[in-house]
Each structure stands twice: as structure tokens, then as C-alpha cells.
Amino acid sequence: MTNITAQDLRELQSPIKERYRTDPASASVTLSASGDLDSTEIACNVDTGHALVKAGLHPATGGDGTFACSGDMLLEALVACAGVTLRAVATALGITIHRGLVHADGDLDFRGTLGVDKAAPVGFGNIRLKFEVDCDADAEARATLLKLTERYCVVYQTLTQAPPITVSLNQAEDATADGD
């Protein structure tokens, strides 16, 4: 879908929004991700639906840098979602974006991840999301664009208002068993 106008976007989303108004349950969708643990390396093979990504240890934790780092992938998901959301909001507002960049940085203290210092946090301590956009909007419209992008970006909202996560560890069934 290229060169979508505000009207095109409204026409595309209008029946979807109406369905969600009349049938709120239809708006609830479960997204899923899965990965296969590598049997020989400290790695997890994640199927993105478009490619297979092998995630492994970051060099700061002993990895050699040949595999994707899950921390990088988290920042990449934020950049992807924020970029798509910004473009959709700009389109809806009638703002023309000539070009732009989305960049995310996150600070990690690997002492926590490696258990070197129990007081050191595990996870990002600070994340910075930055947009550099060449557009036809004035300062007020750019402020609205940013505010609405923050409001409607799924990954941003998930990171800033973390939902509860349920974790379980189950014994895998033996796929080689013949039923005896």
C-alpha cells in the first residue's frame, strides 16, 4: 500500500472501526510468537513470519555478535511500531512526511543480567525514542503528531504500562515416542 491519503485510510479503517463498535469482542486479537531452542548453541530460532531470526547472547554476556540480541530486537520492535504509527497518524492528520528516521537507544547494565551485582537491574534502565522528520507541519501539528503517536503505538504503550506476564515451564512431550 503506497501513497495512501487520509481519505484512503479512513475508507480502509471505517468498516473495521464500525465492526469494533458494534462487536467489541471482535477487536480482541491474540498475537503470538514462538521460537525453537537450538540444541547445540546458546540460541533461540524465532520465526517472524517473514524470516527466521537466530537470537543469542550479546557480546557483553559472552556472545560473539553473530546472532541477534533480544534487547536489540525489543528496540527494533519499538522503532517499527512507532514508525508505522507515526506514518498512520500523519496520514490521518493530512501531514505529508517527505522523509524521516526513527531511532531507539536503550541503556543496559549487564552486571544484573550476569548476576555479578544483585543490586544492578536486569533489563533496560532507560530507553530513548527519537524521530527526525521532514514534514509540512508546523510546531503545533508536530506536537499533536508526537502525542498521538505515543498514544497509539502498541509497543510504546506496552513498555510504559507493562501488562502482567504469566510464565510457565512445562515438560515437552517426546516427539519421537511411538505411543507404546
What does this protein structure show overall?
The model has no long low-confidence stretch (mean pLDDT 90). It is built from 5 helices and 6 strands. The protein has a domain of 92 residues: K homology (KH) domain (GMP Synthetase, Chain A, domain 3). The longest helix is centred in the middle third of the chain and has 24 residues. The chain has 180 residues and is an alpha+beta fold. Helix content is 37%, strand content 22%. Strands 1-2-3-4 form a 4-stranded mixed β-sheet.
- Rg (CA only): 21 Å
CATH homolog superfamily of the domain at 69-160: K homology (KH) domain
Q: What name is given to the CATH topology of the domain at 69-160?
A: GMP Synthetase, Chain A, domain 3
Please tally the β strands and state the result.
6
Secondary-structure topology with pairs:
Layout: H1 6-22, E1 35-37, E2 43-47, E3 52-56, E4 68-69, H2 70-93, E5 97-108, H3 110-113, E6 124-135, H4 139-152, H5 154-160
Parallel strand pairs: 3-4
Antiparallel strand pairs: 1-2, 2-3, 5-6
Helix pairs in contact: 1-2, 2-4
In short:
This protein is an alpha+beta fold and 180 residues long. It is built from five helices and six strands; from the N terminus they run αββββαβαβαα.
Note the main attributes of this structure.
180 residues; alpha+beta; GMP Synthetase, Chain A, domain 3; four-stranded mixed β-sheet; two-stranded antiparallel sheet; 6 strands; 22% strand
